Amino acid sequence: MSKIEKALSKAREERGNLQLVAVPGTAHQSAVGTALVAERAGNPETIARMALKETRLLGPDDLSERGIIHKSNIDDPAVQVFRELRTKIIQQSKGKNSIVLVTALSKGSGGSFVAQNLGAAFAFDAGKSALVIDCNLKNPNVHRLISQPSAPGLTDYLDDPDIDIDRIIHPVGIPRLRVIPAGTHPPRETENFTSAKMVRLIDSVRRRYLERFIVLDGPSMSDLSDIRILSEFADYVLIVARYGRATNTQIDSCVGAFDDKKLLGVVFNDEPRIPWKPRQGNAWRPGPGQASPGQRG
Predict the structure, then answer these.
(1) What structural domains and CATH numbers belong to the chain?
(2) pTM of the predicted model as reported, rounded to 2 decimal places
């Protein structure tokens, strides 16, 4: 029995008054209650209400400072890449909401950049929403997207029995995009993700909105034990490698760590390209610099 299965069994025992619902297309069952199922939403009105909860929408310049793409920059190669990646995931999942784990081949490959922008790309679609969860507890990054970087997050939820899930989900100024930062509590040395409470968290955020795509911003492959556990939660896995630095041997080793049915592929970050600037009129104006937008670590 895997650690996830043990945690699920514990969750069922703790919540014995709840019905068990099998989640199609995943390798585990979910312990969910009728009240939670009743919360499930997948209609335009619910999504529209989510967008109205934003206190301040971020413009292109604000997002650029945070390393996040903006949907108005339709000619930006980075926007096009993430839109295409989003579309392929939707096609692969046949339109059903899914969980995507993003892990970097090595530290500094840009895994968080890919995870956060993939979440933004899902949120571009007015009929969908996205949630990015920072599971890179030793090198967190998601907290920089919210107005209060010290707000409670994942480790607070896992360590404090009195914290409700709603307290750790935060808006970022992008309609239909929410994030769960790593949190303020120091990560445990072991078993960060094997608790029954982590299982309940994933169940809850997955089932609350039918159109929600969840992106797990995972640690690099050097934390293989955590990555293996997180991959059990995920429907799909994306590996991020920095262009020109990753070897074929490294990539083959990482690819072999995952089930072929879950592995979506490898994203090469920081590929050299012509610098880009927004279109002005009908003319292209290359901008100064040595790297295109989004080429971040």
Answers:
(1) 41-269 (3.40.50.300)
(2) 0.75
